Amino acid sequence: MRIAMHIVSEWVSSFNFCLYSSIMSAHYRGSIIAL
Question: Would the pLDDT of 32 be above 80?
Answer without folding.
Answer: no
